[in-house]
Amino acid sequence: MRLSALLLALLGLASSVFAQSLKQAVRILPIGDSITESSIGLPSYRYWLWHELEIRSYKVEFVGSKNGVFNCCPLYPSTATDPWDADHEGYTGARVDQLNNFIGALAADSRPDIILLHIGTNDLNQIGVIPNQSVASTLTELDTCIRTLQAAAPAALIMVAQIIPAKPTHGFQAAGHQAQYNAGIPAVVAATNRPGAPVVLVDMSTGYDATTHNYDAIHPNQWGEQWMARKWQTALEPYLSRTTGAWWESTGEPCAGPGAERPFLVSDQGSRPILGTSFSVRVRGIPAGAVGATGYIGFNDMTYAGIPLPWSLTSLSLPDCNVYLSPVAEVPLTITGNQVIWAMPIPSNPGLAGLQFHFQAAARYPAGHPIGLALSNKGTATLAGI
Q1: What distance in Å separates the CA atoms of residue 285 and residue 223, rounded to the nearest whole number?
Q2: Residue 311's domain spans which residues?
Q3: What is the overall mean pLDDT for the chain?
Q4: DSSP one-letter string for 215-229
Q5: Cα 20 vs. chain centroid, distance in angstroms?
Q6: Are 216 and 284 within one domain?
């Protein structure tokens, strides 16, 4: 029997929790303003980032004196079944100069290995409101912030983001201040970079669409937060090591319909595609009104019936929706609330080690697009022993 056929024959519904590696977690400290802290009704970029790193078998711990989001609880709180780490140092409304008054002591207490810094939005927003507030003063304060963090955590890698754009008509964006600020950040990074504890630039601006990714003028919605998480994840990966050869990743974008939730693949309790175990993923964001769901599995993500992948379904009245794989099996999935737990028993055959397979979920959603589907992004799993 072909290895792919053997794997498919054993795919089904189950759940499992896998023991985590004993390797010490990398301590990551997210620092910033409300864009880092987030608010009630949103998960925060930190939720998506934690999952993006966890599914790839990177063992991380988010640190900081704060937890959750502004004024309470994130959309997806940390629970026994979704135990993400919600610690941070995000301060709604904070300017860089305000952050500089206290962030050194907090960073020293957190003992980070890596610092994620996204700051400056409120400074730009108050140009013309506060005396002597300018792009130049904000860049000077950013330099001070980085040096303060270096003194507090001398061995830490510091990642500095060029900030996400505001909507085009918003004051500091329309005045060009944001473009000027982002253009000046590389020089600050270069001036503060040092051997043994590098300062790294992360372009969080290019490709970000404030019109669709922001829920107001300056703050990211859930999809903007996912976009930020992907940017941080890509920047972090060269500095992290996997704890196991069994891992998976999510790529692509989900879709559903105007104003609806979008099904998105995330980790289920640390599950890994380990030989001889049950691998499970969580499909978050099933739209309200969905009447059923199906999981599709395949080994080819290049073509589907001769059509290059990903296959855009815009011509079928499903704008922004894509098919990401050529399915060879489908699994009925049970919707509970607004999510699905999709479990796939993995054979113990050692010959499967290194095999990759792809998966995508679809919900039947009559209230959404005319065809009545909501599609998840794509998952790709790499099989291995523990």
Answers
A1: 11
A2: 3-17+244-382
A3: 89
A4: SSSS-B-HHHHHHHH
A5: 21
A6: no
